[in-house]
From TrEMBL:
A GO BP annotation: tRNA threonylcarbamoyladenosine modification
Protein's name according to its UniProt entry: tRNA N6-adenosine threonylcarbamoyltransferase
Main location: cytoplasm
Record's keyword annotation contains Secreted: no
Top-level taxon: Bacteria
Length: 347
């Protein structure tokens, strides 16, 4: 494979993930250790539990990843780690581990913004040229960006309250579907009738590209409470119909906001009126089939080409962090972020 060869660590939330990626986008090895079990009883991620899990598993996972890639540190060109935004305890574990390895080996350390990792993840498996329109939907973030290049992003909109994934997680918790909520809600929604409950579509029909999901979440809670008050408990069909209604509302909102972003993108980059520009989705919620299908339609009717990373690179993983390290080194070969620390907030 082509240089640079980069080791990437991801510890910003509830997966401990490590990967080795080369300059041609070949993933030489990657491992994701989910902490879902450790957090399941709490119905969400507990920061202190997450940090301890990262400490416990990270060095073993690095060893295993290097072994699987059949390389030692001497073959590497850099060590990258997610340095923010995220939960501070986990970020410190990843950043300090990466810096310690960098200091011991003399390799440069690359501090990767988690969102930049998601933003560039589609270029790991496909040749997608800049600029492109990116819809980033995860548990912690919901943004639409024009991606002009590595480190060059223009934000068109973001959530004013909950992230899309957070809305899925809260809905799942409310309906007793466990954590993480996205896959469970999608499964239930597939069996339900999306038209039975009338749920709000916050901000839909208003100008701009911002999102809002907290009103929808409240409406789901009130609907569930009304059902319980009426008949004592919700049955399987109620739950499926509510999930279907919720997913349809989220999908409508996303399609509406992305529609506005497409118009703005085509104004900002007029060259792309002639040739089809890429519409890229990333983040855990991009794993949702109904949402993918709908955004594919939005792209097609705007003469854009829809791209989504393979599912394993949509949710948090180390390959996207290693790949961001590759992209950063290709753009700025002298970069070394030894002076950069963990940053829980990093816009
Ligand atoms: O990108 P990610 O792994 O972590 C963050 O950076 O937040 O995204 C996780 C989020 C969770 O909120 C999860 O419920 C959501 O992505 N998610 C889904 C699906 N799979 C994961 N949401 C909707 N449908 C899915 N199939
Ligand atoms: Zn993420």
């Amino acid at each position: 494979g082509d240089p640079p060869l980069v080791l990437g660590l991801e510890t910003s939330c509830d997966e401990t993930a490590v990967a080795v990626v080369d300059g041609a986008g070949h993933v030489r090895a990657h491992h994701v250790l989910s902490q879902v079990q450790a957090h399941a009883d709490y119905g969400g991620v507990v920061p202190e539990v997450a940090a301890r899990q990262h400490i416990q598993h990270l060095d073993g996972l690095i060893r295993k990843t290097l072994d699987d890639a059949k390389i030692g540190f001497d073959a590497l060109d850099a060590i990258a780690a997610t340095s923010g935004p995220g939960l501070i305890g986990g970020l410190i574990v990843g950043v300090m581990t990466a810096k310690a390895m960098a200091a011991a080996t003399g390799l440069p350390f690359i501090a990767v913004n988690h969102l930049e990792g998601h933003a560039l993840s589609a270029r790991l498996t496909e040749e997608i040229a800049f600029p492109y329109l990116l819809v980033l939907m995860s548990g912690g973030h919901c943004q639409i960006l024009a991606v002009e290049g590595v480190g060059r992003y223009r934000r068109y909109g973001s959530t004013i309250d909950d992230a899309a994934g957070e809305a899925f997680d809260k809905t799942a918790k409310l309906l007793g579907l466990g954590y993480p909520g996205g896959p469970a809600v999608e499964r239930e929604a597939g069996r339900g009738n999306p038209d039975r409950f009338k749920l709000p579509r916050p901000l839909m029909g208003t100008p701009g590209c911002d999102f809002s999901f907290s009103g929808l979440k409240t409406a789901v809670r009130q609907t569930a409470e009304a059902l319980v008050a009426e008949k004592g408990a919700m049955d399987t069909a109620d739950r499926a119909d509510l999930c279907a209604g919720f997913q349809a509302a989220v999908t409508d909102c996303l399609a509406d906001r992305v529609g506005h972003a497409v118009a703005r993108f085509q104004e900002d980059y007029p060259d792309f009126r002639a040739k089809p520009a890429p519409l890229v989705v990333a983040g855990g919620v991009a794993a949702n089939t109904a949402i993918r299908r709908r955004l594919t339609d939005v792209a097609t009717s705007a003469h854009m080409v829809f791209h989504a990373p393979p599912l394993e690179y949509c949710t948090d993983n180390g390959a996207m962090i290693a790949w961001a390290g590759v992209e950063i080194l290709k753009t700025d070969p002298a970069r070394d972020d030894m002076a950069v620390g963990a940053r829980p907030r990093w816009p």
